[in-house]
Amino acid sequence: MSSLPAPHQQQMLSHHKRRDRVGEVLREKIALILLHKSRDPRLQDITITGVEVSDDLRRAKIFYLTRGQETEVRLLQKALHKAAGFIKQELAEEHILRVMPELTFQLDESWQRGERVAHLLRQLSKETPPSDDSQGSS
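The structure corresponding to this sequence follows.
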């Protein structure tokens, strides 16, 4: 028996690798555009954490982090939405893809969930007394 995947599985694997590579390149390029070419100082203070590209490479969801408060995050979201056309134009000049994907921006909340889980685990460890196996039967 061969351990090689069937031809259609190989094609799917290579397609996912391409999608992931495109996402990583977009993440790097968008971060550089925001840092060096954006005139809006709010956009220079965010971190692009990842890009999810659709299977057909027509849509890209850009995840970002910011140190701002919730009200600032809403203003930043509006600024990113407004800058999407500029960012897409700058990406097009890089000739990464024949067709530039539609860009949407979403606050990356994964780190907040991680912090919440870590906080809960710390609380749990404080509340749970250490087990003492030395108190067995005498």
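The radius of gyration is 22 Å.
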